[in-house]
Amino acid sequence: MIPTTMKAMVLTGYGGIDRLQYRDVATPSPGPGEVLVQVTATAKNNTDRKAREGLYPTKKGEMQSFQMGGEPTLRFPRIQGADIAGRVVAVGEGVSESRLGERGLLDFNIYANERRDINLTPDYYGHGADGGYAEYAALPAEQFHHIPNSELSDAEVAAMGMCSYQTAMHMLTSAGITAGERVLVTGASGGVGTALIQLCRILGAIPYALSQQDKSDALLTLGAEAVLDRADMATFVDRVKAETGGKPFDAVMDLVGGEMTDIFIDAMIFDMNARSSYPRLSIAGASGGNISEILWTRIYLYQVQIFGVSHGTREEAEQLVAWIREGQLKPVLHGAFALSDLHRAEEYFMNRASNFLGKIVIVPDSQWQEHGKLFAVERP
After folding, report:
1. Would you say the pTM of this structure is higher than 0.90?
2. What local confidence, expressed as pLDDT, does residue 48 receive?
């Protein structure tokens, strides 16, 4: 029996975590082409915080986000949470009842059209439409992909959500990464970073991680060729040469930005005679600062190709789902919080300790015993 109301964490406006309110709201109904999913776990992404704080401006001085389609789509109240795992409990018109009971993972994008190879006006569930910080969510049936893998818990499925993995995939495909290329992964311990390391290995590329040294063992186990200490950027290029045998990085997957961007470019151009392709910089984050000062002569004389990346395409999402089903991608799950405890999860995420690696998932309180307790992040 599907209840008429459900528990949800509702974002009521731009601001701090006090803007997130735990409420009873109406349970959605699936429309044509949709499924109603009973949410069992939703991965937390940094985009939740940045959207809440108004940190996705497309013009200076504004506090609106994701207006690439012409109009702001983050309207309040909104239920955040993009990377949704759960079970289909009802279907809308045009969707087969054979999908009832199916466990799946959401392709989080709100696509503007049916194009499979391009996504020019990216938006996503949890931003332009309600997401998974709730007990139920109405989602497009064709984007809720069946994940039958019995070896994966629902929390682990959510940890492989598309917000991180598809962003990582699109960074690599935009830069045309091929087998044998040396790729620097910045912000390597987060969700996108750990996804990049795994995807590089699937593609045959060689990932080098930039992170704190106390995370080296975990990142090397995940597939990093070497881990470069982000605490010592003054000697970064010399350390790159030592790790690569004097060869520059072919490409950088940058999630940091700020003053480090120029150093990352240095690591690609110090010996152009050793290169066989153009230096490439894929950017999908700016945790180190939203403004980078770079000499444009360095960009065009060294022919550095820059790719801004936000989300990805249907084709990339479907490829990722295939790799998950085949067991080629592995979850990197740090731990779980109950939905009612989302304020603490936000604080933990922003002040995370040095042992943090991978993803946090948020589990509805009604699902906690079955899907969250095993992975609980304990109070200090």
Report:
1. yes
2. 93
